[in-house]
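Quick illustration, no need to memorize.
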Amino acid sequence: MKKLLSVILALTMCLSMFAFTASAETSDNLLVNPSFEDGMNGWVAPDGKWSTVESESGYEPRDGSYFAWPSEAYQENTYIYQDVSLNGRNAGESIIFSLMVCNYDQSPHDMGKVELQFLDASGNQIKTYSQEQRNPDWHNQVIIATIPAGAVTARVVLWAIWYVGGDVDAYYDMASVVATTEKYNMVYITEKDGKEDAKAGDILTLTADNGVSQNPLDYEWSSSYNEAATVDANGIVTMITDGSDGFAIYAKDKKTGVVGVYWINSENENLKPASGSDWASAELAQADALGLIPDVLVDADLTQDITRAEFAAVAVKVYEALSGTAAIPVINNPFTDTSDIEVLKAYNIGAVNGTSATTYDPDALLNREQAATMLTRVFKKVSLAGWTLATDSQFTLPYEKPALFADDADISDWAKDSVYFMVANGIINGVGNNKFAPKNVTSADEANGYANATREQALIIAVRMVENLKK
């Protein structure tokens, strides 16, 4: 399971959130024949081994008269899938994939594995989410994921994976896929004793965190395989076997239905949020949910100052979220001091330029006026047809200019319009005493990083860009 990671942040010295008031919109179920009442219509079975049944081995449908089962499969793995068009949906919106799954009660139980895949126009996978279940009782599996830039199709895949007996016994019913503009925080599960490997008799204490609550009673806990381990309402796991094949513990947020997954004795990676300020955890989760955290900041200390290369990666994420288009790197690299792919993407869309004709200075720290300017360029690229960095002076952004900061004279001329545009839209605010702190002016400023932008502040700006300015 791909490590995701969450981060984001704060606003101490800077920012005030502009209210996002648009009401959430959620679609109807986008699947054809979601409860299998019309046979396998709408579903693709590559090996032709799936059918629908009214009952099997004492199991009954959860909705209507039928459920899906690979009745012709024998000691093998098999799957069905259905593609859902994302036409009219935007990057940053959420897809909610839910369904009922169970496995025949014969130890060690066959497995039902569900996947949500996002595909580009060529059918290539951009991102995949999965959950596994080996419980002999019907369970509701829910995957909530953000639509990534460049995705045109959501594919749902239902696997039946053989472990025991002749038949392959994974049963499915009540499938649903909806698109929504509702925002969801990720749920992260951590293990207090630091054990990701456990043996029979071990007790593990898990903690779930959705950026709002760490109270275990705010989550519904379950194990993917009760004969390997059980978990109680307080997130206490009791190991029954060594679970050598690996299994998952789920914590579902009772309010939103978002499911966090923690893997034990498995090659899958457990989700671990990046380290930021405690008071910024909810906004860190929002940045993660919006897909705004670049790989370079995964596992990073977000309280540290951000470099020009790191911020270029953030700018690319904002561009992709606002435009719904994947950024591509410039073909001919103009820089001699970096070949960073994210820098070359940011340069190609006009978000950044060099410190000279041939240098980018990727490790230099970013200041606040540079941050405002880079992301304003991103917004211009997305919203102003024909805009390029070379023709920037020919374009203006309509906004009501706020009162000047007391340190307006310290703001570089090339940055002033961007700074006040950001302030007018509630993306960035001052640092107090009517000052903006655009850059370090004195040696004392330089020594204490007075005007430096931190990684978490950069991510906060990114979140506000997407939430306040996306059309």
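The chain has seven helices and 16 strands.
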